[in-house]
Amino acid sequence: MGRRRGGIGIALVTVATLMGVSACGGGSGDQASGADAKASGKASASASPSPTKPAGPPMLLDTIMPQSGTTVGVAMPISVVFTNPVAAKARATVEKHMKVSASQPVEGAWHWMGDRRADWRPKTYWPAGTTVKIDADMTGVSNGNGRYGVHGYTHTFKVGDDVRADVSVTNHTMKVTKNGTLVRTLSINAGSAEYPTWDGTMAVIDKQEKVHMTSCSVGISCDKGSANYYDLTLPWDVHLTQSGTYVHYSTGDPNPGSGSARGSHGCVHLSMSDAKWFYGQVKQGDPVTITGSPRGKAPADNGYADFNLDWDQWLTGSASGEQTTATL
Fold first, then answer.
1. Cα dihedral sign for 56, 57, 63, 67?
2. Left (φ > 0), alpha (ψ -120 to 50) or beta: where does 83 sit?
3. Segments of the chain with pLDDT less than 70
4. pLDDT at 97
5. Judging by DSSP bridges, how do beta strands 78-82 and 163-168 pair with one another?
6. Most exposed among 168, 211, 253, 311, judged by the fewest C-beta atoms under 10 Å?
7. Which ranges in the chain belong to alpha helices (H)?
């Protein structure tokens, strides 16, 4: 099996990394549920339990991303995962108790990815340099299924430089910009016709210097005799989807570009030097936008692909509608 990151966090954990298969995904698991996002870490609840115990078992937050004190990219949503399902009838009230404030006010809204995960994103990207705070005052709030919140949670983070990567599958290029200025154009190979790469915008989930990737873990092939079988540990891995999409270096495609024309199993390949350079440029929440692939856009809950929904689509998943952030 491929290496899988993350684990099930305790109920008060508010530090999270989306767990996903560690391989270029071309088979099963394309629509990984955001409700499966778990990770262990240090709790950062901002309030003590309510002195008055509400009726019923507690409603707790499993995770909140981004972590407090971190600096993220302009496409990073606030992503809240609950330990238990939140009923549709309770979502408007729950949303209203999750207050978002920003140093530069923006329009945005919550959107439910199933019944356990709610993401808040701005209508367009965050302005670089914005400080953002979420106050999730869940004390006494019902989830509509007999559970009541007993804690408040606070996270504050900053939006850093506006770093974007635009990948053209057909031109075999990746253009990296920083605060609107082109920094470098890199040669890439994307997925093959059999295993095409996801299109659309995917915010970086995380990155690792090395990841163990296997074809078996994503349902491509468990047969060692197959031409599509692989079991590799590869460097400079920037994680884009839970279903296993990465930007990285591959030993099987060391010199990507239009000349090599070698397709991947869904990942975006860079040369060793370019992969290391790109790894050093990007951070969680930076948008990587891929165009020219026949596969279609990654589902919004397959990692942090929230901006693959247009604004009207986003609002259909909100119980309380569009709102303007409070001012910090």
1. positive
2. alpha
3. 1-22, 25-55, 260-261
4. 98
5. unpaired
6. 311
7. 91-96, 272-281, 311-316
* Other beta carbons less than 10 A from residue 223's beta carbon: 11
Determine the straight-line distance between the first and last CA of the chain, rounded to whole angstroms: 46
- The one-letter code for the residue type at 91 is R
Strand 287-291 to strand 200-203: parallel, antiparallel, or no bridges (unpaired)?
antiparallel
What is the largest distance, in Å, between two alpha-carbon atoms of the chain? Answer: 68
Residues counted in the chain: 328
**Identity of the amino acid at 111:** H
Q: Is the dihedral of CA 282, 284, 285, 288 positive or negative?
A: positive
Q: What is the pLDDT of residue 17?
A: 41
Cβ atoms of 87 and 42 closer than 8 Å: no
Measure the CA–CA gap between 62 and 162, rounded to whole angstroms: 29
**CA dihedral sign, ordered 214, 220, 223, 229:** negative
- C-alpha pair distances (Å), 274 with each of 179, 266, 277, 288: 20, 18, 5, 15
Rounded Cα distance between 105 and 126, Å, is 10
The C-alpha atoms of residue 137 and residue 144 are separated, in whole angstroms, by 16
Residue carrying structure tokens 């470098």: 184
